[in-house]
């Protein structure tokens, strides 16, 4: 592998200026989820240049894409997942600019080895991870059904590469309480206070916390609570994220939260409507054998210490992991910054980020080469996936 590592580093150096140019362009032109037309087109332009067949609006998602390159011999289909959506006001405060560039870079470099060993390399553009989670709709449309391996590497604060672990299953719920307006001082008895329903919902959920798992999370905000203090509000709305370790535990928690909402409506005399205001995510099931191959690849390029990441948050990559073997490790920015901040965004175009990106790209490609060369590795990864 030492020879291949040196070879990969040379090839990476040759394309680095294009990767840096793309990353800076994305940083300077942040786009919100499902509006990433510039990002989609720039990724597709680069991948087309290197011989990939490109399909835009993949699986009916306007800003998604599929770029694939097929070798002359049969073999596994290895997919690198690219994200490129930004955050409101903050820009690329989650680093999806450099995440997407890393995936495209890995695809371009693995292409050379697909020519040698056979198989297929795919770069799949997956929009809106921060909100609607396009991977969920794409998974339902069959985007990952024939994928043997899926890899995506997310940027993170600090100085260490982090292992892929798990994420929480998540349901995004909007609770709308409807009542009846009246003068709050002159005729309060004629009104039905919708805000009472929302406040009771928060109170009952807070009381519920003692009886839920320590790994469960329920957190929300009031998005509508009335127009004036002297008018009893006839409409109040709260948005919540409900999370748990897996779908089974989430279903149990959801029933309790929904009962809190129904009780709040009953006690306040309001009418209740419940809907999903964003896409719900399944939990991430990390394929440990695949993660081990990736970790060994990091060590072969000189990374001595890889740490565990904390189990937190939710990602639409979870839905992919229920369809094919998937890993979601983290690459360091070599800087301590808070995620979802302007400082985090700025750090994605600094030297530390490019160091972490190179290491992640080389490890992703080395992992792909090992899988292309050895069917037994593919078989062991798939066996673990089937058992889980």
Automatic annotation (TrEMBL):
<dbReference type="InterPro" id="IPR017439">
    <property type="entry name" value="Amidohydrolase"/>
</dbReference>
<dbReference type="Pfam" id="PF01546">
    <property type="entry name" value="Peptidase_M20"/>
</dbReference>
<dbReference type="InterPro" id="IPR052030">
    <property type="entry name" value="Peptidase_M20/M20A_hydrolases"/>
</dbReference>
<dbReference type="Pfam" id="PF07687">
    <property type="entry name" value="M20_dimer"/>
</dbReference>
<dbReference type="InterPro" id="IPR036264">
    <property type="entry name" value="Bact_exopeptidase_dim_dom"/>
</dbReference>
<dbReference type="InterPro" id="IPR011650">
    <property type="entry name" value="Peptidase_M20_dimer"/>
</dbReference>
<comment type="similarity">
    <text>Belongs to the peptidase M20A family.</text>
</comment>
<dbReference type="InterPro" id="IPR017144">
    <property type="entry name" value="Xaa-Arg_dipeptidase"/>
</dbReference>
<protein>
    <recommendedName>
        <fullName>Peptidase M20 domain-containing protein 2</fullName>
    </recommendedName>
</protein>
<feature type="domain" description="Peptidase M20 dimerisation">
    <location>
        <begin position="174"/>
        <end position="265"/>
    </location>
</feature>
<dbReference type="InterPro" id="IPR002933">
    <property type="entry name" value="Peptidase_M20"/>
</dbReference>
């Amino acid at each position: 592998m030492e020879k291949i590592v040196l070879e990969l580093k040379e090839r990476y150096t040759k394309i680095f200026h294009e990767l840096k140019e793309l990353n800076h362009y994305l940083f300077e032109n942040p786009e919100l989820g499902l509006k990433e037309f510039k990002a989609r087109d720039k990724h597709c332009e680069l991948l087309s240049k290197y011989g990939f067949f490109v399909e835009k609006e993949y699986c009916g998602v306007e800003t998604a894409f599929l770029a694939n390159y097929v070798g002359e011999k049969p073999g596994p289909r290895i997919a690198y997942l690219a994200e490129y959506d930004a955050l409101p006001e903050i820009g690329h405060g989650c680093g999806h600019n450099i995440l997407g560039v890393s995936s495209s870079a890995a695809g371009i470099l693995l292409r050379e080895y697909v020519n040698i060993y056979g198989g297929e390399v795919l770069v799949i553009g997956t929009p809106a991870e921060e909100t609607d989670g396009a991977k969920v709709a794409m998974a339902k449309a069959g985007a990952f059904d024939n994928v043997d391996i899926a890899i995506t590497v997310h940027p993170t604060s600090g100085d260490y590469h982090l292992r892929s672990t798990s994420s929480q299953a998540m349901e995004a719920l909007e609770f709308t309480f409807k009542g009846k307006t009246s003068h709050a001082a002159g005729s309060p008895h004629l009104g039905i206070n919708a805000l009472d329903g929302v406040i009771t919902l928060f109170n009952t959920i807070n009381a519920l916390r003692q009886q839920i798992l320590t790994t469960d999370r329920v957190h929300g905000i009031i998005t509508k609570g009335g127009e004036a203090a002297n008018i009893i509000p006839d409409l109040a709305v709260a948005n919540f994220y409900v999370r748990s370790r897996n779908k089974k535990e989430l279903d149990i928690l959801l029933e309790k939260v929904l009962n809190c909402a129904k009780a709040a409506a009953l006690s306040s005399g309001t009418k209740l409507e419940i809907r999903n205001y964003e896409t719900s995510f399944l939990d991430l099931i990390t394929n440990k054998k695949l993660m081990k191959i990736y970790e060994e690849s990091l060590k072969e390029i000189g990374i001595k210490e890889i740490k565990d990441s904390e189990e937190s948050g939710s990602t639409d990559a979870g839905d992919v992991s229920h369809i094919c073997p998937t890993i979601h490790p983290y690459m360091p920015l070599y800087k301590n910054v808070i995620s979802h901040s302007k400082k985090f965004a700025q750090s994605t175009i600094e030297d530390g980020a490019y160091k972490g990106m190179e290491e992640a790209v080389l490890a992703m490609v080395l992992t792909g080469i090992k899988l292309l060369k050895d069917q037994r590795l593919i078989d062991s990864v798939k066996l673990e996936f089937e058992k889980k």
